[in-house]
Amino acid sequence: MAAATSIMRVHQALLAEFDGIVGRHGLTFARYEALVLLAFTRSGELPMSKVGERLMVHPTSATNIVQRLEAAGLVERRPNPSDGRGTLAAITETGRAVMEAATTDLVEAGFGLGMLDDADRDQLFGVLRRVRLAKGDFLDGETEARSAES
């Protein structure tokens, strides 16, 4: 229980810090993650169903995130030509610029882990990677994040 509680507390602390950092760019961390997801796809767009799946959120939450990004001019929604009922979310150039600026700020903040040295971060990543693999977050042999390519 102590390890699980510690993970949750660190998650809460990091999320609060990240929200503060990306908030300077008019984002929440969830919206920042959606922009990163779209920016790292080959075409800069994904079907809405994939956005929710890759962000690991309920489809309603994915829709809300994309609607807010669209209202800010950071994402566009358009019909999916390969699925007549589906919708694509596409990052705009403004969205890409905002995401890059927020990323610069997160990097400067050490992603909230500046108190750890490289060896500590590598060890932490290795331990958490085993948990993520067991939970199906990504397949063994993939990079530390799911491929954003469709």
UniProtKB/TrEMBL annotation:
InterPro entries reported for this sequence: HTH_MarR-typ, MarR/SlyA-like, Tscrpt_reg_MarR-type_CS, WH-like_DNA-bd_sf, WH_DNA-bd_sf
Keyword tRNA processing on entry: no
GO biological process, alphabetically ordered: response to stress
Matches recorded under Pfam families: MarR_2
Protein name per the record: MarR family transcriptional regulator
GO molecular function, one term: DNA-binding transcription factor activity
Residue ranges of domain HTH marR-type in the record: 1-133
Residues making up the signal peptide according to the UniProt record: none
Organism lineage: Bacteria, Bacillati, Actinomycetota, Actinomycetes, Micrococcales
PANTHER family for this protein: TRANSCRIPTIONAL REGULATOR, MARR FAMILY, TRANSCRIPTIONAL REPRESSOR MPRA
Organism: Candidatus Phosphoribacter hodrii
UniProt keyword terms in alphabetical order: DNA-binding, Transcription, Transcription regulation
Keyword NAD attached: no
